[in-house]
Amino acid sequence: MGDGGLTAAQVVAIARDGARVRITDEALDGMSATRHIIDSLADDTTAHYGVSTGFGALATTYISPELRVQLQRSLVRSHAASSGPAVEIEVVRGTMALRLATLATGRTGVRPIVAQRYAALLNAAITPIVGEYGSLGCSGDLAPLAHCALAVMGEGDVVDSSGSVVSASSALAAAGIEPLELHEKEGLALINGTDGMLAMLCLALHDLDGLLTVADVAAAMSIEGLQGTDRVFAADLQALRPHPGQAVSAANMRAVLADSPIIAAHKSTGFTRVQDAYSLRCAPQVHGAVRDTMSHTRLVAERELGSAIDNPVVTPDGRLESNGNFHGAPLGYALDFLAIAVADLASMSERRTDRFLDPARNHGLNAFLAFNPGVDSGHMIAQYTQAGIVSELKRLAVPASVDSIPSSAMQEDHVSMGWSAARKLRRSIDGLTRVLAIEVMTAARGIDMRSPEQPAAISAAVIAELRTVVDGPGPDRFLAAEIEQAVEFVRTGRMGRVVRRAAAETDAAVR
Fold it and tell me: What GO terms fall under cellular component here (predicted)?
C-alpha cells in the first residue's frame, strides 16, 4: 500500500477475502517527512487544531504539552461510543483498510508506526467490534473509526482470527503486537474519515455487479417461461435510446434467449401476442438505468478512493490546514441513489414472478405453478415473501441524506447521514438478492412445467445447476429451505459462474 490509495477491488479483497496488506517504503518515508512538520508545531506557542487544542466545539481550548498524550487517548475513548448490533466484520476491515490508505498518503501527519499497527491488525485478522449506531457521516465516521483506533491502543473488544470475541489486549498479545500510544494529532487522524461509508459503497458495488447479471438472466428466463417475445430486445431498437446500461442489459437478454426452442416454437405456430407486459418488455430499460446509476456511484467511489480525508491536513507544501473534506455528502447521495435503484429493480422482478402465478396471465401454466392446484399451493407464498421484501425496500429507498441533525454544541450543525445511507443499502442488497432468487426459482419451475418444450442453453444450464439444490416441480415441500438454497445460489456467485460458463460454450457474451 502506497500513497496512491486503494482500488475498490482491493478494498473488497481485504475486507471480505482477508487479503494481506503491505505499506511501501516510499509511503513510510513520506509519513516520516510530514510527521516532522507536526512535531515542529507541537512546540509552537501558537495553538494548532488537533495538535495543541481540544476538538470540535472545544477547539479553542489550549492543551499543554504534558497532557497531549492523554488528550489523544481521551479523544479515542470518548468517541468510541457506538451502540447496537455489531457491524459486519467485512465492513470493519474495509473501514480500517481505507483509513490505513489515507494514513499512507502522508497527508495526516501520523508516525509510520501508526500505519504499521493498522496493517498488523488487518494481517492478524483482528477486527474491532463496532456498534451499528454512532456515525452521523460528518467529521468522519467518528464512532466506528474510534473503535478501530481503540483496538490499536489495546482497549475494547475485538473478534480474533478464530472468530472469538476477546479483549483487544489479549488479542494483540497473542499476535505479538504492542499496543500503541498515540502522540499529537494521531487520535484525531484515526477518526476523521469517510472510510466506513466508503467501504460499504465499495462492497455494494461489487455485489450489485453480480446481481445485475442475475437480474438480466432471470428476466430472460421469465420471458421464456411466460412464452414472451425477444423481438423487442433487438440491438437496432435498443440503439434508438442509447443509454449505455440499457444496451448491456439488452445484449445480455439477447444472449440468454438466443436460439430458444420455446420462443422459436411459438413463432412457428403463429404466436399472436404483439406486446408483452412492461415487466418483461421494459426490463433492459429498468435494469440498464440501474447499471447507469452504478456507473455514476462508481465514479464517486473512485474519486473518494483517491482522496486524503483528514482535518486538519498536512498540505503538500507543508501547511497544516483545517478543512471540510470529511463531510460525507458525496457518498451519502450516491448510497441513497443506489437504494432507490435497488428497490425498483426488485419491484420489477416481483412483478415478473407474480405473472407466473396467475392463470389469467401465465399462458397455460397451473395456478401458482402448483403441481395439483387446490391440494398444492405451489409458489403462492413465495411471492408473498417477495412482496414483503419489496415493500421494505421501498421504505429503505427513502433517502437518509436529506436528514441532518446538529451536534457538538452546534459546531457540527449540518451532517450527511452517509453512514445511515450505507447501512440501509446493505439491507437493500440483501433483500434484492432474495427477490431475484425467488424469481429464478419461479422461472425455472415455469420452464420445467412447459416440458417437453426446452429453454435456451444458458437458461437450461442455470436450471440444471439449480436442480442440484432445489428440486423441480412436484407436490408441495418445505418452501423456506428451498428459498434459502436459491438465495445462496445467487449470493455466492454460483449462478453467475454457471451463466458465464454456459455463455462461453455457446460463444455468447454476458456481462
Answer: cytoplasm
